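Margin note: ligand = magnesium ion.
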Amino acid sequence: MKIPVRNTTNWHVDSHSPDREQLKPAAERLKSGGTVAFPTETVYGLGADARRTEAVERIFEAKGRPSDNPLIVHIADRAQLAELTEPLATEAAAQLAGRLMDRFWPGPLTFVLPVKPGAVSPRVTAGLDTVAVRMPAHPVALALIAASGCPLAAPSANRSGRPSPTLASHVRDDLDGRIDGIVDGGAAGVGLESTVVEIVDGGTVRMLRPGGVTAEALREAGAEVVYDAVAAPESSSNAADAQAPRSPGMKYAHYAPQGLMQLVKGDAEAVSAWIGAQVREARKNGERTGVLAFAEHAARYDADCVLVVGSLARLDSVAHGLYASLREFDAQGIQRIWAETCPEQGIGHALMNRLAKAAGHAVIEV
Ligand code: TXA
Ligand code: MG
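Resulting structure:
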């Protein structure tokens, strides 16, 4: 779709202690209905005032996002929550939500809660009677939300279908000329989006999207965890309900690099032998080949582009670099990509979820 060309301003701010003066121009743009990208502790978000339909529409336009995919609203303090949401159905459910917020906010945990009628634009909720809310743990995000005085609707600041941005330069690559500004506060933290949950009852949450807060951490905080079908670990039989995903965004192809990608599961020796054979074959056909490997195995591969995504012993560092690696394959014009896999424990669950989506669920067991 052709959209109006915008002059995208870049603001550099101190990522640890941004001062209000530095953030003022960006906050002003948000107040007047503009779109501004900013860093969070997960990925960069593209923000706009969640209460103003014309502002929220600019987000969908800039990203090319399907309009039935609702947005997360970002807040800077708990008082804002009461302005956006209605109480949960039971006192026990409210208490569980409160406990999890105490434990994980600010942080990468998003709650889907009953929306207060009229509190946000219907474009934010895609017409649902719920709204997704989170309080990000990034000093720049918190300061910007506070300075703008707006609850900020903010999806990841990428063109729809592309990997989420973890650097301001990724945002520029995707959205320069399509948004009003980018607050550059350095690298985002976790590297994967927030975990999205809904409260089932006083003891249980349903995970709609795995992310920065792991199922193990939620259980440690006293919540039982069940999974929406698209969020369950692939290896588990706990895929609660196999109905349409409750988090509408999960049904879309996401994070996809331009090349054809496959995940290869199995014993490390077998995996590297199988990928090696595929690389030789593809090269014969004149295709540019790429492998996404763990540091422990990278030396085994001879492809046009071998990217080390991090160490199997440090899956949090893998999360941090995953999207940048997927973008790098594109930058190098790679046409065929094979990726190693990791156990679906801790952050490994969210990692495999994103990798499987990037590969369009093409998973080969060798
Ligand atoms: O880490 C993050 O969450 C990042 C940063 C910028 O905060 N944001 C982000 O937003 O990932 P987005 O729009 O890319 O993903 C929002 C997810 C989608 O899967 C969407 O379907 C789901 O949240 N969602 C939003 N509102 C919902 C609702 N009312 N019910 C169910 N799912 C909802
Ligand atoms: Mg996204």
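The radius of gyration is 20 Å.
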